[in-house]
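Ticket #4471: structure export looks truncated?
Reporter: QA, pipeline team
Priority: medium

Steps to reproduce: submit the single chain below to the structure queue and open the exported record.
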Amino acid sequence: MARAVGGVLAGVLIYLAAEIAIFGSGWYGQFLEPESLAGAVRMCLSEEAARAASPLPVVAVIGNSMLAEGFSAKVANGEAAGRMRFVNLSVAGTTPRCWYYELRAADPYANRYRAIVLQIELFSDEDGDEPMADQISDLRMVDALLRPADALDFAFSFRRQRLRFDALRGALLKGYVFKYDVQALLEHPAARAEKTELFHGGHAGWVFDYTGHPESLAGLTVDWERRSMYVPPNVPANIAARVRRVAFRQRSPDTGLQTLYRRLWFGRIVDRYRGTHTRVIFTRVPRGPVVSPDSDPPDARSTVSYLALPRDTFTPLERPENFWDEYHMNARGRELFSGRLAQEMAR
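Actual output as written to the record:
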């Protein structure tokens, strides 16, 4: 019996030692699959860490795929004409909870940026299709950024008990989260090494020079009273279906869950920069090619309105010719939005 217990304890200790050696040091991060959720966040942060210091004020723009696709630091820098410099820290799939940990990693002393622009899709605190507090994909996004001291706090930011357990286990034992990535690496180590080397060498330039999707929804029209939509025949059927579904979706209720979520994670970001020279600004990004007149009513409860650009700043860009699907701006929309955001920041 004693021998069996000793064997179990030895196994646990060996596992913990391997866990600390592989994940605790941050060593494994450079070998993450660069196109995975965690790899995309890691790539963005490593590129920002390697960015040379700028004599100009730096504005960081952070959001999910709507800004990863919709904002061009290159265009914004050109519009700013030497008055400021922009960086895009947006990663597809990320949420305000992720943005807090991303900013903590990118700006550990809260002094790197003159302003931080944070994405919102709505001013109102609508709940959405599911509570944002229970998006467990956040764990995969930021697990590599979590410290042991973060584990309980991160876990209890989820509402459901099962998700709290998963988040706590993943925050403390990162091998649970990255086990499939590790298996893929061990199966094809040379291919992974070649791919990570390629991404580390060229990804920053690809992102900076990216011009956006050439496709357009130009010609799309909506009759809101009849709840009908005309989609041009050149638009793929799957995109047309998604545009219809989003355009005619019913407003979500406001139960207070989104308010609590925003107060927690947006509040932590604002508090982190309180008393510093960094200004935190929220902006409602262009929401889609067509937006229901009932969307985001001005009298709805809003946690962020007092720190946001005026609600109609980018409403004129919500046109079919500026989008290629239901949420994401195309090359034309990307250029227009990036230039206007630079103008707003200069103002």
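Status: closed, not a bug. The export was complete when the record was re-opened. Leaving a note from the reviewer for reference: Residues 2-24 form the longest helix (23 residues).
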